[in-house]
Amino acid sequence: MRPSGRDLSEMRAVSIETGVTKHAEGSCLIKVGDTHVICTATIEDRVPPFIKGSGLGWVTAEYGMLPRSTTSRMRREASAGKQGGRTVEIQRLIGRSLRAGVDRVALGERQISIDCDVIQADGGTRCASITGGWVALRLAVNKLMKAGDVVTDPLVDPVAAVSCGIYAGQPVLDLDYPEDSEAGVDGNFVMTGSGRLIEVQMSAEGATYSRDQMNQLVDLAEKGVSELAEKQKAACA
């Protein structure tokens, strides 16, 4: 039995509320169980120097956790003078993941920055950030298309992410913190809405795993991402 009482292949409750900030070109509050993340998208008429003049667009991301998003207060990284390694790794993952679903030629030479701020954490914050980040990106691109700044839709497929792992010897979908902290195997799966893999992060946290177990986790992830993609589409409709 999972601590939450969910079935092995059952997601936590997911909700996506759009238009949660006044100024951003796209924004949403995504809730995956007790993990809550605000995602915003900002359109900028510039690109990084390494692609300037190429005609290609760029999507990048930043990620952060509020001090009381966790059970005890975290020190703000700004007060430490630098970002931690975990933060840097996660925001690079978010950027890579979202770019995989973008036709950068169609986007044109502009940058869209996705900011993901975790206001409450209960496992799977990077996955929720990717899923909500795509919604914010979709809303921002909609504004570009409505204004006629972009002619062809550059978003080729929704991008979403979910965690899966081996908990108490069983493959489970969408780990919350009690499961994540005790899982023998932990994995994050980033996929397109059509089921194409973008990135897989899997590691043995306390036990090794077999090829069959890995395949079971991929199957669970495919189910979870399919459900998330439907939530994304409904939120952006």
Account of the 3D structure:
With 237 residues, this protein is α+β, with helices and mostly antiparallel strands. The chain has one domain: GHMP Kinase, N-terminal domain (Ribosomal Protein S5, domain 2), CATH 3.30.230. It is built from 6 helices and 9 strands. The strands form 2 sheets. Strands 1-2-3-5-4 form a 5-stranded mixed beta sheet. Strands 7-6-8-9 form a 4-stranded antiparallel beta sheet, with helices on both faces. A hairpin with a 2-residue loop joins strand 6 (159-167) and strand 7 (170-173). The longest helix is centred in the C-terminal third of the chain and has 26 residues, at 211-236. The relative contact order is 0.18. The model has no long low-confidence stretch (mean pLDDT 96).
According to CATH, the fold-level topology is: Ribosomal Protein S5, domain 2
End-to-end Cα distance: 36 Å
Spans where pLDDT lies below 50 across 5 or more residues: none
Highest-level CATH class: Alpha Beta
CATH superfamily: GHMP Kinase, N-terminal domain
Detail the topology: elements first, then pairings:
Layout: E1 14-18, E2 26-32, E3 35-44, E4 58-65, H1 77-80, H2 85-99, H3 104-107, E5 111-120, H4 125-146, E6 159-167, E7 170-173, H5 177-180, E8 185-192, E9 197-204, H6 211-236
Parallel strand pairs: 4-5
Antiparallel strand pairs: 1-2, 2-3, 3-5, 6-7, 6-8, 8-9
Helix pairs in contact: 2-4, 4-6
